[in-house]
Design goal:
By secondary structure, the chain is mainly alpha-helical. It is built from ten helices and six strands. α6 runs antiparallel to α7 (197-213). The protein is globular, with a radius of gyration of 20 Å.
Length: 308
């Protein structure tokens, strides 16, 4: 699945890993599962067991709900307002990266309310896992072949399915950017900054650098006269920078008491880890039409109804 170095690459990757009893498992969805698993393993070294499960359940649930909500409201509202019954149909695609962040922050806030923990200390714990999840997710986007950049003649251009001409692999640019944020965050964390500095650094670098990456992307929608994603990038950049400006001091942290997760927490977390496997990539409400020729089960089933 590597890009050819001698010239433009023609994308022929099947985005479906396998089908189980008529349910299709997607590479893009696997990127969520892998990202969630990495975050869970990372947090096990930072928090008591029971708290890790609480945070994982609220965080992962928030990510999925937020990603879907922002996609529906800001990107595809004309379609979903006309077909509200399809709003829960995440197996038909449609998850916003900005929504993943907003939903994840909401899940963390709920966790902090339940366990009476400081919000910024908790978000700092998640900055590095978040960068990893977003980096891996972009690899899933590329495998799906759905999010494309502008037409170009660069040697690493890609011919995507259902897109005319060779284009910038913009999701790979963004994925690489997200992964390169990780060493910066590690350097910041080693200085033991005041709570919120790591969160602000992540939000600012993620969103500000994405402004330049998204110059190579073709957005199908606009907001306030700009590409929808660029408006959200600017908003997140401002939030991250503001947080940095008010939190630039050192601080110490206290150790946490140990506790064990309950059975329902284990089951809930396992479900949240496995559920994303059925989610295809962003803006794919036409999944049956696009992939039905290769995977007959995508057509005329309860999970994959004809798009009105």
């Amino acid at each position: 699945m590597a890009l050819a170095v001698s010239g433009p690459y023609v994308h022929h990757i099947d985005p479906i890993i396998a089908s189980v009893s008529g349910v299709h498992l997607w590479w893009y969805g696997l990127s969520y599962t892998l990202g969630f698993a990495e975050a869970f393993l990372y947090l096990r070294r930072k928090l008591p067991p029971r708290s890790v499960f609480n945070l994982g359940i609220l965080l992962f649930g928030g990510v999925l709900v937020g990603g879907r909500a922002v996609e529906v409201i800001f990107y595809e509202w004309p379609f979903y307002s006309a077909h509200p019954a399809l709003i829960p149909a995440v197996w038909l695609g449609g998850m916003s990266t900005h929504g993943l962040l907003f939903g994840g922050l909401l899940g963390v806030w709920l966790f902090c309310v339940v366990e009476r923990r400081p919000f910024l200390v908790t978000t700092d714990l998640l900055a590095i896992p978040a960068a990893f999840i977003l980096g891996v997710g972009r690899i899933g986007n590329f495998i799906d072949g759905q999010i494309v950049g502008s037409v170009t003649s660069v040697p690493w251009a890609v011919k995507f399915p259902d897109a005319a001409g060779f284009r910038h692999p913009v999701v790979l640019y963004d994925g690489l950017k997200n992964l390169l944020i990780i060493p910066v965050l590690l350097l910041v964390a080693r200085r033991r900054p005041r709570p919120g500095v790591l969160t602000g650094t992540f939000l600012f670098l993620y969103a500000f650098l994405r402004i330049f990456v998204d110059l190579f992307r073709e957005y199908p929608t606009t907001l306030l006269g700009l590409a929808t994603g660029q408006v959200l990038n600017i908003a997140l950049s401002v939030i991250g920078l503001a947080l940095l400006l008010v939190r630039m001091r050192r601080a110490d942290h206290r150790a946490e008491p140990a506790s064990r997760p309950s059975a329902w927490q284990r089951v809930a977390l396992a479900c949240l880890l496995l559920f994303p496997l059925i989610i295809p990539s962003d803006w794919t409400q036409d999944v049956p039409a696009r992939y039905g020729k290769r995977h007959a089960g995508l057509v005329h089933t309860a999970m994959y109804p004809p798009i009105p």
